[in-house]
Amino acid sequence: MSSKKVKSANDASSSRDGLGGGESVIADHGRRRSTCGYCKSPARSSISHGLSAETLTVSDYQALIDRGWRRSGCYLYKHEMDKTCCPSYTIRLKASDFVPSKEQQRVSRRLERFLDGKLDVQPSEQTVASSSLGTTRSEEKSNVEPVMDDLSKTIDQAVQLCIQSGEFPSNMQIPKASVKKVLCDKRKKLAKGPEQLLYTSNVAFPIAAAIKRTLTSEKVEMEGNKLSPETISEILLSAMSKLGEAPGISIKVSKGHINFLSASKASLSEKDVVPNETLHAKKDSRKLKLEMRLKRSSFDPEEHELYKRYQLKVHNDNPSHVVESSYRRFLVDSPLIYVQPSGENDEKVVPPCGFGSFHQQYRVDGRLVAVGVVDILPKCLSSVYLFWDPDYAFLSLGKYSAIQEINWVRENQARCPSLEYYYLGYYIHSCSKMRYKAAYRPSELLCPLRFKWVPFEVSRPLLDKKRYVILSDIKESQNQCSLLPHASETLATSEHEEMEQGETNDHFMGGSDDDEDEEMDESESEDAYIESDIDNIVIGLYGSQYRYKVKETPFRFRSLLKLIGCHQCLPLSNSHADNKTKRWIWKDLRKMLNPVGRKQLEPMLQSYRKVVGDELSERMVYEIR
């Protein structure tokens, strides 16, 4: 029995879903093995279960992602958490409880300063961004940028010295040093002596964050103040003194900042500094406009071109992997049945855009700079993927888009009260590139066994010890990880049954349905086929449907065969099917219901019911072709 070919249902007629109208039609691919894009293991160590969907209601997909499923185009996958190399936990947060961190607030302010023309961009970034938007800010700073560039290089050399000496870990992601000019008014305000503050750098802060990401929580606690920006700035100051001093410039540190001062007030003439009044006047005249447009998922050549640039420059993809067909399968095709509000009653449960798959475009003065692919479901906005213009990497658009998507949920909850959560895809604790997702707080992870939501702060100590953890097993977690008493109390009060972006996404890293790197695993373990009640699973065959019965009586079997083609045959069957189709149905039903057919089919149904659950197996159509 072969699985039905997947086709996009994005253009299917709008369904009232009810939110239960329409139907989900899926085909089961069973266990899949593939190479892992996270741990880069050469073996096929990533183990998942795969389904393909012809159509899928938003209610059914909401239920699936709350059992650990995700989609890539029309392909659905769920990792076998106790067997796969990198267990992937579904992560979400309640939008109304979101508290942005200082770093996330800085991202928003940085973009606002860029739009206002107040952001000092590095030369390599400024050249591209300015030319694309018709600005000439780089010319204004031509006199001072060479000095700033030299100071940035000095800091980078100091960082390398610290790594070589062992003061900084060698495996951390090294942030690029950024040196900024101090404007005239601020110089006068900070002046305390003959020295004049010219430039400053806050590189100690991202270095502190980078070091913490490379250490476990226990080591972070042990190191204490050694990881503070203040201490790191002192270490860098010592390293820079070994490199030699820049002529006419002295270096001091203050509250984690590295400051460059000049003893001579005439060392930088006033003509090199743009007066604040003039600066503000020029910035106001070229203020940029950011637009966000949410549209139904569909192919857009402009989006595809941006996707190609992003994959080639950011992820170093092979050009043959970013062709239009693969892009369509990955980010355009969607099995979700679109639901739109139509009437007063619907306005209370469906947001103005409806439910389904969407692309959120971010445009700066008309130029497309980022696209967020999202699914909007009855209880959440689920981030699928984000791609952005590499020329605007300095704006951290992945983080910015996640904040905007959280705000979108907040704003639309007023009209659609059930819409409460923001899903960021999968979280892999052992993958450093995934750690940013847990920074959106307060987040929670899905227990892979009992499908209950557990606060991330409770889960983290467990995941520091083991990759695969049954998160909801509080007693076992306390025994294994010696959680503090208050942690179990937090878990007990937070295990509510409510629902909840990449960069990647997912912001966020997405899966792929390309078979060239995957293979079906025929050697299923015995525990995959534990005996279970598979009665009432909905079987689809040539457009006809019926509920499977383990103990089918000979009389019912003969009745099913006899009634094929009659108007009252099987629910939703095609009463106008031609005789050839009726003979196919008769033949395949006979195969399925005889002892040999049952022996082949029932293990498949048991595996399917295990991964999707009882309720969905009796609601979705298990398509056989």
UniProtKB/TrEMBL annotation:
Transmembrane segments: none
Family, as annotated: Belongs to the R-transferase family.
Function text: Involved in the post-translational conjugation of arginine to the N-terminal aspartate or glutamate of a protein. This arginylation is required for degradation of the protein via the ubiquitin pathway.
Top-rank taxon: Eukaryota
Record keyword Transferase present: yes
Catalytic activity, reaction form: an N-terminal L-alpha-aminoacyl-[protein] + L-arginyl-tRNA(Arg) = an N-terminal L-arginyl-L-aminoacyl-[protein] + tRNA(Arg) + H(+)
Regions of compositional bias (Polar residues) in chain numbering: 125-136
Source organism phylogeny: Eukaryota, Viridiplantae, Streptophyta, Embryophyta, Tracheophyta
Domain N-end aminoacyl transferase N-terminal: 34-106
Biased composition (Acidic residues): 512-523
E.C. number(s) listed in UniProt: 2.3.2.8
A Pfam family matched in the record: ATE_N
Keywords, alphabetical: Acyltransferase, Transferase, Ubl conjugation pathway
The organism of origin for this protein: Brassica campestris
Protein name in the entry: Arginyl-tRNA--protein transferase
Gene Ontology MF annotations: arginyl-tRNA--protein transferase activity
All copies of domain N-end rule aminoacyl transferase C-terminal, residue ranges: 302-447
